[in-house]
Amino acid sequence: MVDLAKNFEAFIQEDQLLELFVPRTLGMVCFRLKDSTNEMNEELNRRINEDRRIHLVASVVHGIYFIRFAVCSTLTTYEDIKQAHSIIHNFAKDIRRDAKKILK
What we know:
51% of the residues lie in helices and 25% in strands. With 104 residues, the protein is α+β, with helices and mostly antiparallel strands. It has a 4-stranded antiparallel beta sheet with strand order 1-2-4-3. The longest helix is centred in the last third of the chain and has 26 residues, at 78-103. GO terms for molecular function: aromatic-L-amino-acid decarboxylase activity. Homodimer. Keywords: Decarboxylase, Lyase.
């Protein structure tokens, strides 16, 4: 499970839209949108969870909202991790697009 979390961590580090909030700890990867507000990250988490393909849990530390991705099952595969990142990335693109519309 830890190796799969390392894979997910690498996906986040390579992603132009997302950033690690803190370094990975065992199977837990904490991330958020780059250059974003708490509201944007809340919206990202809401859309992901409403979609129901994956479920993520958010948290707030020192007033900063972030999202937690945990690899918890021995049945999880590399393909599952890759798909989860793809889902998150696509919703992140939508949030960025929508934020640009609002700011215009």
